[in-house]
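Hey L., structure's done. Input below.
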Amino acid sequence: MGFRPFVYRIAVRRGLGGYVRNLGDAGVEIEVEGPRDVLEDFLRALRDEAPPLAEIHRISVEKVAPDGTREFRILKSAVGGEGGGTIPPDIATCERCLADIDDPGSRYAGYWATSCTDCGPRFTVIESLPYDRPRTSMRDFPMCDACQREYGDPLDRRYHAQTIACQKCGPKLFYMEDGRELGGDPIERAAQALGAGKIVAIKGIGGTHLACDATDEAAVTQLRQRLSRRGQPFALMAPLPLVREFAQVGPEEEQLLRSPRRPIVVLPKKADARLAPAVAPGLHTVGVMLPYSGLHHLLFKRIDFPLVMTSANFPGRPMLVENENILAELAGVADGFLLHDRRIVARCDDSVVRFAAGAPVFLRRSRGWAPEPIPLDLGEEPMIALGAELNVTLALYHRGKIFLSQHIGNVEHLETEGFLRDAIEHLLRITGAPLPRAVACDLHPDFPTARLAEELGERVVRVQHHVAHVAGLAGEHGFGEIVGIAVDGYGYGADGAAWGGEVIVWREGEWRRVGSLSPVPMPGGDLATLRPGRMAAVYLMAAGLNPEESGLSSKELWIVKFQIERGLNCPTTTSAGRFLDAVAAWLGICRERTYEGEPAMRLEATAATGKPFPIDPKIEERAGRLVLDTVAIFRELLRLRREGASIADLAATAQAALARGLTYIAIRAAGQEGIGAVGLTGGAAVNDAIASAVKAEVEQAGLRYIQQEKIPPGDGGLSFGQLVHAAYVK
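Output:
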């Protein structure tokens, strides 16, 4: 991230002598000599003016005798001082580079790929260590004399900026339609196409987006049809003044939006938002990111409307990055193509963050963070973990750090499994780590990641899904023991059942399942996740109520009854996700799932305008654990409905009852075990209402509440937790 050149510049500008050198994992060593007041100003600048991604954990100052040094130098790193895994993530184009792009007198004026040591691509262009230009995709673009001078000048902010480039020597943009390149300004061509309601594929830093006018219902609907994405919300991109027109942006949200990492931030939609309804159907929120590259910056100088900016891939497949594949596979999707000739070494999707219980939580940790390591001492042995099946990331433990990869996706598809293999090789190369002997994976025997673990590892550690979630929560906060509440969709249980609403006591690799939701049938197995009315019928029948309220046809209802009676393809489940699905279907909010998590997300959107009724959780002991009776919750919901409660109030009540019941079990377990912290994890932990309710109950009980901050609570953080747990399994 150019820290040593930064130190050099602030020292030279103050006339100080001395040196700076890299000590690798031990940090940076600076010896500086000069007047006391100037040294104090230097120390202030060291912290206040540091590069955007620099995180200074500690500054230790030791006084030494002056020796009259007047020159300041950048020394070679100490022996072994380069360390491992020093590759920073991709960073949004900084304000100074944007100013250069806008300055008619700058040689970078209007150039889309302008960057410096403070910004631009890193992870997505690096092939191997050490990080220098010949080992990146920028080797295809020899520097011109002007770029070479800046690259070699320690006083210039582009000193050793490996991605330095300009119009003369750098990557080139071009625009295509109907298989031919059109002349003129490529960005202007793309802007005109977007303004005319067309869909444009835009190749960026770590992949390709599909873009269209987010206020044009016809364009957004057409994009959905061409991609076969019936309901999944689309992310948007717009400058901040435009974002304020359609979304509620508080100070914390603005800080996150404007950060150099530039994630997609999930924001509440304004009631009068001038957005196409098809952008996020049935939801009260919208995911938004600010422009984060010079290309985006130049594009929004030519348009005055927000853009849908969604990853250019078909559902479940990796994002497209190679020009030939982009043109071939998106021929029936995009009307135009804004492409460039810089190779993308590692594809990297946008990160997604939302606020839950008053704090930012990852839905997806990728661009802007990957492969930034998370310090954690798990011993001497290197390890790798492969996650589960959906929303996969891989995690590498090496020299006291966990490197979490970019978002990989759903490895049920062969192309995505290939992406996972490539990502493993790339992460090992850029960290300098050997392929570890120990590989952790999910307990499920049929996941592709489990088969890959057997192929790669001499020692394979299988970790139960929700144990990994809870272990990750503990590891992230440095706790040796916690009581974890896992509100999740599906995880293969230790008994072979489908777990997902669990309370787990975790102590340094030892764990006990002390609570859960009540087990219910899941007729049709995975089909019950696609047809949530099936789960509604299950709960209604178990409660002695009319299953016809599930919204199923008479034929499907007969099949469900038959499966339950005969036990045909009807596993049991304790899943919180399936309970929320059932409520959503019963209330008529969502009776067919078109994307992962849709029923629960729509339920949350409906509940946002409701007020929960108090329901006392019915909890009893079964099979050595405490069980929250979700069937009894259904009976109470039906009673409230008959008394005139609104759909919004019932949705809010269901979420609150689930949260209160599981939290009661967790608090009781914490008291019995003498544990002072209760945490929330799992895919549904990003639900603000559920997280806020759990937090309130835990803190009222005098315990510490924790939730994930550095990793996603869903399956995108599972590999991290697998490593934490596996470190204790010998």
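The domain at 85-170 is CATH 3.90.870.30 (DHBP synthase). The two ends are 38 Å apart (CA to CA).

-- N.
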